[in-house]
Amino acid sequence: GAVVSQHPSWVICKSGTSVKIECRSLDFQATTMFWYRQFPKQSLMLMATSNEGSKATYEQGVEKDKFLINHASLTLSTLTVTSAHPEDSSFYICSARDRGVNTEAFFGQGTRLTVV
Amino acid sequence: DAKTTQPPSMDCAEGRAANLPCNHSTISGNEYVYWYRQIHSQGPQYIIHGLKNNETNEMASLIITEDRKSSTLILPHATLRDTAVYYCIVRVRNQGGKLIFGQGTELSVKP
Lengths: 116, 111
Prior knowledge:
The complex is a heterodimer.
Chain A: E1 4-7, E2 10-13, E3 19-25, E4 32-38, E5 45-51, E6 57-58, E7 67-73, E8 76-81, E9 90-97, E10 105-107, E11 111-115
Parallel strand pairs in A: 2-11
Antiparallel strand pairs in A: 1-3, 3-8, 4-5, 4-9, 5-6, 7-8, 9-10, 9-11
Chain B: E1 9-13, E2 18-23, E3 31-38, E4 45-50, E5 55-56, E6 61-64, E7 70-75, E8 84-92, E9 105-110
Parallel strand pairs in B: 1-9
Antiparallel strand pairs in B: 2-7, 3-4, 3-8, 5-6, 6-7, 8-9
């Protein structure tokens, strides 16, 4: 299957700082990428849909000014957690859908964010 | 997208078939059944999907009932590496749509 790569795999940051997470589709072009968050022992929760060249669409209850999403190219989307707080500590996962014939979504390996 | 119901957990002996059920009684005619799994601390992995016919690939088989209100994912010879949370999702295909995850089934394969 197609490969989606996230970077970094894990990050520790201080409260009040911002953290950027990258999501890349390595062998296909993705017009749409999705960002999820997952707390321990819980399922994935969709945060936003990222469309190349346009503004992201956020799910209800997700603060767009806190979770900045940029999808500047067909192979890269970034999620920036601004002014991070300990409650933002979570597992962040992106997925991408090939704009070609294959419409299955492929997921990155996830980024473990710890805010101290 | 239709909602799905799965048992929260199941056990399976190594080498035996694992049969994971999913109820989707409100599925509509153009919605597909997708299965993903998530091994601890990794991103979800696509397994298989189907509309109304049974499907098989190198990972698993998907059996969908005639009325499409339920389905079963079958791992024919479960190994310890199949221990994961398995998610059954129904959605319309080809709409660039998002995947909404339920709680899934935590499958434990035991030696």
